[in-house]
Every structure is written in C-alpha cells, then in structure tokens.
Design a protein that fits this description.
Layout (H helix, E strand, L loop, with lengths): L2 H15 L4 H18 L4 H23 L8 H17 L5 H23 L4 H20 L3 H4 L5 E2 L5 E4 L2 E4 L4 H23 L1 H11 L1 H6 L4 H27 L1 E2 L6 H14 L6 H18 L7 H15 L3 H25 L39 E12 L2 E12 L3 E5 L6 H8 L7 E6 L2 E2 L5 H7 L1 E4 L11 H14 L15 H12 L15 H14 L4 E5 L7 H14 L4 E5 L3 H7 L2 E6 L2 E6 L1 H5 L2 H8 L5
Helix pairs in contact: 1-15, 2-8, 3-8, 3-11, 3-12, 3-13, 4-5, 4-11, 5-11, 8-9, 9-11, 9-18, 12-13, 12-15, 13-14, 18-19, 18-20, 19-20, 20-21
The structure holds adenosine-5'-diphosphate and magnesium ion.
The site of magnesium ion (MG) has 3 residues, from helix 16.
Length: 634
C-alpha cells in the first residue's frame, strides 16, 4: 500500500464513521444544549445568546482564522445591523421582519466596504488599530449625531417580536423555545455557508493568503480583493448577529458599538479555537454561561469579569489552539502516527521517484521544435528570439547602486545561467524581472512588449514565474494544497467569489497537482503538512509552485543552495525536466551543476553585467576570473 492509498484509507475510515454532515451532528448537539444548560443553572435565554454570539463568531473566524485579519472593530458592523433593523421596526417604516433583517445586514456589509477600503490598506497591527479606531468613532457618533435615531445613551427599546396571524389567533415569537428553534435554524444555515466558504476554492485562496501573502500575490491572486471579500462576509455575519440580538432582547443597547463587543468576539473565537468554525460557538457557550452563572453567585457577582478574565488567560496559555483546535490536533496527530506506522510496515520508503516525462503536461506552453527531451540540448541557444529582456536597468537602494546599466536578453527555449559573487545584484535583478520590485530606471520587455512596472501578479499572468532564494511555500498546507494555490489562480483568474463550489478529488485540478508532484518526485510524500518535509523536498515543491503557474519563462534563484549532494542531483533532474519547452534563467553558485545545465551564462559583478556567452567561453574569461578571485588567472 502506498502512502497515498494509506492516507485515502485513513480518511475513508473517518468518513464512514462520521458519514453524516457536520451540520446534522451540530443540530443534534444544539437540540440537547438548552437542556444541559437548564440542568446546570442556565436558561433558554442563555442558549439563545450562545447561538447569536456563535453567528457573530463564525464571521470573525472567517476573517481572523482564515484570512488572518485581526479586527478589533467588529462592533461597528454588529451595531450597524442592530440599530438599522431596530430603527426600521420601531419606527414602523418596515413591518416585514425578513426585510428589516436583510436591510440591517446589507447596511453592515455596505459600511464594511467603506471601512475595508481604509483599513485594508494596512496590514498587521496597523489594520487592527484602524478597525479599532473606526468602531470607536461609531460609538461616539451613535451617542451624539445619531442619538435622535439610536436613542444615544438609552439605546433603542421597543423592538417588536415577530408575529403571525394564524386564523383568529396572533402568534408571537417570544424569546423562548420557539425563538431558540428559529435561531438554531438560522445558525445552522450560516454555519453551513461558512463551512462551504472555507472549503471552496475561494476559502483555500483566503487561507493561502494568510499563510504567505507575497507568494499568493506572485502566483496571480488579487489578495486585496480576497481580503475585502472576507471583510464584507464577516461584517454580514456581525450585522446578522446584531439584528437578531436586537429582536431577541427587544432592545439595542448603547454598548452595541462598544469595544467590549469587539473584544468579546475575539476572546470567544481564540478560546474556542480559531479556524474551526465550531470554536467560536464553544467559546461563546463558555463565556456566556460562566458570566450568567457567576453573576448569580452572591458575594462574587460583581467580580465576574475578574474571574472570567483569569479563566480565559489560563485557557489561552494552556491551549494555544483553543479548545476545539486542541481536540482536532490531538486526533490529527493520532491519524498521522497510525498512517506512518502502517506505511513503515507495508513498504520501504523509496528515496526518489524519477520525474515523469513532462512533455504532455506542458503541451499548452510548449515551444514548437524545442523540446529538450528530443535531445537537441544546445539548439535553443543559437538564434532564438529574445523572450525576456532587461534594458539598461539601474536599481538604487538609498545611496547603494545594486544594479547599474544591466542589459540581459534571454532567448526562447534556452537555459541561461546567471552567476556572480554574493551581493552582485542577482536576486535584485530577478525581483525586477518578475515585477516584484520596480527599477530606478531602465525597461523590461517581454516578447517585444514593454512590461516595465506591470507588477508581479500581471507578470505571472503573462508567463513569468520565479522560485525564491529563500523557500516560499505554505508550511501548514499539504503538498497538494500547496500546488492548488497557483493552479487556482490559473484556472479561476485573479479573483472569484466562488464560495459554494468545491474542488472534487477527481477534478482536473487535483490531477494536475498530482502530475506536478510526480514530476517533482514528491508523490510519495502526500500525507502530512509541508513543514515536515526535508529542505531538498521543500526546494522541489518550491519549483513545483512556480511551474504550476505554467510560466513561459521560469526564474530559479539559487535552487541548489543548502542542499546535500544527493538532493542536488534530484533538483538538477527536476530543473532539466522543467526546462523542456520553456525558457529558464537560473542563478546558482554550484558552477559544476550550472555549467552542465546552461546554454549560456551571464556574469554580474558589483551590479554590472561583465560577460555573457557559452559556458566554455565564460569559464576562460579573464574578467570573470577577476570578479571571482580578485586577480586574473594565468
Ligand atoms: P545577490 O543575489 O547577487 O547576492 P542581491 O541582489 O541580493 O545580491 O543584493 C545586491 C545588493 O543590493 C546588496 O548589496 C544588497 O545588500 C543590496 N540590497 C538587496 N536588496 C535590498 C533592499 N531591499 N534594500 C537595500 N539594499 C538591498
Ligand atoms: Mg541572491
């Protein structure tokens, strides 16, 4: 049995045991929850609150857990939804509940577009601080300018409950079992949507952006749009929770926009376990139940925040992944251990599966008549048309001139080596060639077209891709998932909100990922995350990610650096098969390997291009010897 079959087998066992969708299990558990709460001193009221905060947390988990955006201002959207819906219902402008709720949710989402437009210009702590500041602004405005509509300090009381006229009787949905059932149905629907979203191609790209934003951009995703979409979805969830809490309490309090509200959803999600979707619900259950219980205890009621705070600090320090996260991790480790044990017993690990013939794989981008597999290794060098050209490139970093009047022309189908001592400017030139960095002056041409300043995403779309000097993979993802990131950009374009679609295991996309893995000799390493791979394997995956964008021009920045002799041989083999039908520019210090691979070699020294020509000529060039040895050789 291969590792692949084993992993499939392990998954199969798991699937059979839990054949019902998660939503069914969750519904069952949530049907039992109120009874557990009642027997433990809670109430139906407590249960309803838990569900509502669970909805709020679902959106936040998508935003923080999957997209990696830590917002301290979710109260802005919670409050917007709450007040808009409450105002519409209290004033009688809208009498239909679905309409009023829809309007509240839409208002939150529309507002989040504005907030996102400002906040998403920054990353990390600056993003968090902007969201925090904006929600504080909302708090202030609600208490001042908007007070005539929101009730200022008093909040907005008198939000009606939904009613139905059935025959002669008027049914009212009171905050009791009936309302619990309705909100449970809404929770399950929103949970289902969130789960579809995070497993959809959209969700996978979102997750990849969190892990490595720069690489995700470089393989062709419009990361700003993905972040904005996640921000708006999270605001929709926050708005929905706000509207429903208003209706449930018949009141929207002045604390809806308060920092406490934003802080509580962060805490609940982190304690429950982010990136689990169920975590925020578990966090909410703990928080709300403990708060209700602690407040009832005579003598310590007033200190509930102190006790809850201490308990949560304890939870976070002992369970880094949160409650649900730790449980998932425990089972994941067990499955992995079982799979690798069985694997060790069933077969010897093959050291390296030889690369598969890539000819048909890259048929789409093949250069006619230039297939290296056909044996005409050197033919490409002679007379090919220039594919990518750097013209008079200059790059300054402050006072330092990293590149000075560099001209380089790489011909169609050739492998060109780029050598030069450390600090010569090779990586800088690569960054300019792939559009990651703008040159101070000079032009870039691709197939005769001036592409100066088009940016890394557009350069990738045109067919220029790079493997990085420092490996840029997605350590938390599996090998297949790593390759899906560039493949999804190719098949779906820079952005698509396909939250309800799925990647089927037998889809063309998966097959392509598997073919690439086979070509990289990584098909026996499918189980487990990429963080478990050896450095040489990560290198091959790194090249695989660049290849998955189907580049016409592939740039490799020191692909052999830090590898053992065995690993070098494997990577050289991969480079050879990757070069079939495409143009390759490779920076390398391993001269033996490079001179064996390259059709031509260019030499950079102190930011200047001092020589270019066939390997034999470069080997004997006195200027090159001077550059490397400091003195001309005899
Ligand atoms: P190589 O890849 O040939 O070893 P690099 O292109 O990385 O060299 O660097 C060329 C020169 O530019 C070095 O002196 C380096 O310190 C400088 N340099 C590279 N990147 C930056 C940067 N982002 N900011 C400032 N200086 C840089
Ligand atoms: Mg470098």
């Amino acid at each position: 049995m291969t590792a692949q079959q084993l992993a499939a087998h392990a998954n199969g066992v798991r699937r059979r045991a839990f054949a019902l969708p998660v939503e069914v299990w969750l519904t069952l558990a949530l049907c039992v929850m109120p009874f557990v709460l009642l027997s433990a001193g809670g109430s139906v009221d407590t249960a309803i609150r838990i569900l509502l905060w669970g909805i709020f947390g679902l959106g936040f988990d998508i935003l923080f857990g999957y997209a990696g955006l830590l917002s301290f201002g979710q109260a802005a959207f919670f409050g917007t939804g709450g007040f808009v819906t409450a105002y519409l219902l209290v004033s009688g402008i809208v009498t239909s509940f679905p309409l009023a709720i829809g309007a509240g949710v839409l208002a939150s989402m529309a507002f989040s577009v504005l907030v996102g437009f400002v906040a998403l210009r920054r990353v990390g702590i600056y993003f968090s601080m902007i969201t925090f500041a904006i929600s504080e602004l909302c708090f202030f405005i609600q208490h001042s300018i908007l007070a005539p509509w929101t009730g200022g300090d008093n909040g907005l009381p008198g939000v009606p409950h939904p009613t139905w006229q059935v025959g002669d009787t008027l049914l009212e949905l009171k905050p009791d079992w009936g309302m619990y059932a309705v909100i449970l149905a809404i929770f399950i629907a929103t949970f289902w949507f969130a789960r579809r979203l995070v497993t959809s191609p959209f969700g996978r790209v979102l997750n990849a952006i969190r892990i490595n934003a720069d690489r995700s951009l470089a393989v062709g995703h419009n990361i700003q749009r993905y972040k904005m979409a996640a921000f708006v979805v999270a605001a929709g969830y926050a708005g929905l929770a706000g509207t429903l809490i208003g209706i449930f309490q018949s009141y929207v309090g002045p604390d809806a926009f308060a920092f406490d509200t934003s802080g509580q959803v962060v805490m609940q999600t982190v304690v429950g376990g982010m990136r689990t979707l169920i975590g925020p619900l578990v966090g909410a259950a703990l928080w709300i139940y403990l708060r209700d219980i602690l407040q009832q205890i005579p003598g310590i009621g007033g200190m509930w925040k102190l006790i809850l705070g201490a308990l949560f600090i304890l939870a976070i320090t002992t369970m880094r992944r949160g409650i649900v996260g730790e449980i998932q991790h425990f089972f994941y480790k067990r499955r992995l251990a079982a799979a690798s044990l069985a694997l060790a017993a069933s077969e010897k690990l093959t050291a390296f599966a030889p690369p598969a013939a890539p000819a048909e794989f890259f048929a789409g981008r093949a250069v006619p008549g230039r297939s290296r597999a056909a044996g005409d290794e050197r033919s490409a060098a002679e007379g090919g048309v220039p594919v990518i050209e750097a013209r008079h490139i200059r790059k300054e970093f402050g006072g330092l001139v990293a590149l000075d009047d560099v001209c380089l022309s790489v011909r169609e189908g050739e492998i060109m080596g780029l050598i030069g001592p450390n600090g010569a400017g090779k990586s800088t030139l690569f960054r300019i060639l792939t559009g990651e960095m703008a040159a101070t002056s000079g032009e870039m041409h691709f197939r005769g077209r001036n592409i100066t300043g088009i940016g890394v995403r557009e350069a990738c779309r045109m067919g220029i891709s790079k493997s990085y000097q420092i490996v840029q993979v997605y350590p938390e993802l599996s090998l297949r998932e790593n390759l899906l990131v560039p493949l999804l950009a190719r098949s779906r374009g820079a952005f698509r909100f396909d939250v309800l679609s799925r990647i089927k295991p037998d889809s063309e996309l998966m097959k392509e990922a598997d073919r690439l893995l086979a070509m990289m000799g990584l098909n026996d390493r499918l189980g487990g995350p990429v963080s478990d791979l050896s450095y040489g394997e990560k290198r091959r995956l790194e090249i695989g990610i660049a290849l998955a964008t189907h580049p016409e021009v592939l740039l490799l920045d020191e692909p052999l650096a830090g590898l053992s002799p065995d690993e070098r041989v494997q990577v050289v083999r991969v480079i050879k098969s990757a070069s079939a039908g495409r143009t390759v520019l490779v920076v390398e210090h391993d001269m033996d390997s490079l001179f064996g691979l390259a059709d031509r070699v260019a030499v950079l020294h102190m930011g200047r291009n001092i020589a270019v020509g066939p390997p034999a000529q470069i080997r004997d060039d006195p200027a090159v010897h001077t550059a490397y040895l400091g003195v001309p050789s005899e």
